[in-house]
Amino acid sequence: MPTIFSALSTILRYVFITIIYLFIFGIIRMIFLDIKKMDIPRPRQIPKNMAYLQLLTDKKSLYFDVDSVYPLDTEHIIIGRSEKCDISINDLYMSTRHVQLWFEDGEWYIADLGSTNGTYINGRKMKDEPLILDSGDTIKIGQLEFLVVI
Amino acid sequence: MKKSIAKRPIFMVALINVLAFALLFIYRTPLNYQTLYVGGSILALNLVTYTIIRYYRLGDEYLFLIVSMLITIGVVMICRINYSLGIAQVGWYLIAICVFYLVFAAYRFIGFWGRLRWLYLALAIGLFIATQIIGTTINGAKNWIVIGGYSFQTSEVIKILFIFFLSCYFGGERDGFVFNIKEKYFITLMTYAFMGFLILQREWGFTLLIFATYFIMLYIYENDRLLLLANLLAAFFVGFAGYKLLRHIQIRIQNWINPWDDIANTGYQITQSLFAIAAGGFFGRGLGLGSPEVIPEVYSDFIFAAICEEMGIFGGVAIILLYLIFMYRGLKIALALGDGFDKSISLGISIMFGFQTFIIIGGVIKFIPLTGITLPFISYGGSSLVTSFVSLGILQAISAKGGAE
User: Fold this and answer.
1) Of B216, B245, B274, which marks where a domain is finished?
2) ipTM score here?
């Protein structure tokens, strides 16, 4: 028994230290995202505790109308070029029904609706399966980039 | 993109908890199933509180996250050193969490804390006098009051009263007069009165802590270089007089400069601590494989040496980093607020946590002369743990308020 214990303990000491540093790294990362989010103040028209999409792309460079903020005020939202979409943006690089967002079990999900040019989350092209959005994530659709604030 | 569960910090707290207590479970034979209960209760308390804070949006979630990691490491170490103390610490942690919620609610929903300066002063002086009259001496300091079999360290309560008292002044208008004395001089006088009482109780650590907190608060809020300089000179003078007159302080300074002179007696504790840290090396000897129990008071003041021995310098530095982010979070909460009582309180609490950690870790590694004070959230001790959670509750309430406005 003592030898097993000392062998285990000798190995686990590396595990402990690794986990503690991963923990510290995780917290620092979360704090960093927190600060990044705080740089852009919450727009006045958005009620507290409501999630919203903040436009990061410079509006002046665009030829079509786009709001700087889109509140996520219903539980199911489709973004696309069609006027039937909940958020309709006339960006030619966007598909008719481009991407959908929905709220389920306390989380916001995102799924690409088979768009032509794809959807990029934090700079990476998303695959077919839905993803859960975190505050501070960025979504790139067509020519536009949005910051998710939850 | 959501991080997977395995990447979430709270999961890592849980993982450390499970692994460490599983290891402790097979540490002593015959197997003691209570180890698992201890680990389980700590895990449950951490998870439940974290979930409540996150789900009900009770302000900053990082504060408690960091604290839960510190608590986990602390209880693991205490259990490893002395089993019955570990079980007692779990009881204290349960009480501390209850106190945390109570303080949170009280601070969150009562708004007149900034107008009770005379109450804080009266309470503090009352506690000082009570300690002098009915206090009990434990480890050479007459600073404990025993009520119904439970002893508590009054200076732990006093340090919080002191922050409240200071904040009533720094958070206010700051140009009034008290008994024809300018407020800032009145505060200075009162600080020295607090220090005087603490010196009477031989609480060198707390004396230093109170002075450092006062000095930094003064530096932040007042633009009075002369007063700062006068304070430094006074501190130097008091320290020097203490060194000349008091045998206690002479021994401490001597053991700081050269503990090897009297290694068998007064230098024993600090030299054992240095041996333990040296034996640990970079990665430590492994939980349960060192011999930290040779250090006197290892479960309270010297727990940092035990952590360094069994988890290595990397473990020790990790602890310091955790305190660093904790303090950063506290200062961040203070910075986000407008001037006022809340800002001053959160500054005071963060500064005090920072200095308390510095004073004891500095003492244990022989960086500064040793003064007995607990390592917040890690050391064994009911009064220390409960008052640390009182401070945490206040910070949490302030951050929740700040978010609501």
Assistant:
1) B245
2) 0.81
A112 touches B at CB < 8 Å: no
Taking Cα atoms as reference points, which of B174, B166, B252, B249 lies closest to residue B211? B166
Q: Is the domain of B47 the same as that of B176?
A: no
**B98 and B119, same structural domain?**
no
Report chain A residues whose CB lies below 8 A from the CB of B282.
Answer: none
| Average pLDDT, integer, range B81-89 | 87
Task: Report d(CA A22, CA B16) in Å as an integer.
Answer: 11
For residue B259, cis peptide bond before it (omega within 30 degrees of 0): no
Which residue, B346, B301, B329, B355, is CA-closest to B67?
Answer: B329
pLDDT digits (tens, 9 = 90+) for B8-51: 888 888 988 998 888 888 887 777 788 888 889 999 999 999 98
* pLDDT value at B232 more than 80: yes
| Model pTM score | 0.77
d(CA B25, CA B82): 13
Does B65 contact A27 at a Cβ distance shorter than 8 Å?
Answer: yes
Last residue of a domain, which of B226, B245, B264?
Answer: B245
Q: Do B103 and B132 belong to one domain?
A: no
Q: Is A50 on the interface with B (CB under 8 A)?
A: no
**Is residue A127 over pLDDT 60?**
yes
Mutate to test the interface with A, among B17, B282, B321 (most CBs of A within 10 A): B321
